[in-house]
Specification:
This protein has a two-stranded parallel ribbon. It is extended. By secondary structure, it is mainly alpha-helical. The N and C termini lie far apart (about 45 Å). About 35% of the residues lie in helices and about 5% in strands. The protein contains three helices and two strands. The protein has one domain.
């Protein structure tokens, strides 16, 4: 099975400010919902020690104000 991370979905939901997207709760949730792929365990995930800014940088995400906020 492929080992993938779920960083993009957590960051896209705007939850990055409250907790790190790579944590045991997320891994457990993924495992209960699918057996099509296996997530990395937080202890073996190479992205665990990255900050939210570094994770956004890896995604190529550029945050800009909404059109009406400019």
């Amino acid at each position: 099975m492929l080992k993938l991370t779920s960083v993009a979905s957590v960051l896209a939901l705007g939850l990055a400010d409250t907790f790190h997207p790579i944590n045991e709760d997320i891994v457990t949730d993924i495992k209960t919902k699918t057996d099509k792929w296996t997530p990395y365990e937080p202890t073996e995930n190479p992205l665990t020690n990255k900050s939210h800014v570094e994770l956004f940088g890896l995604l190529g995400t550029i945050t800009r104000p909404a059109f009406g906020d400019r």
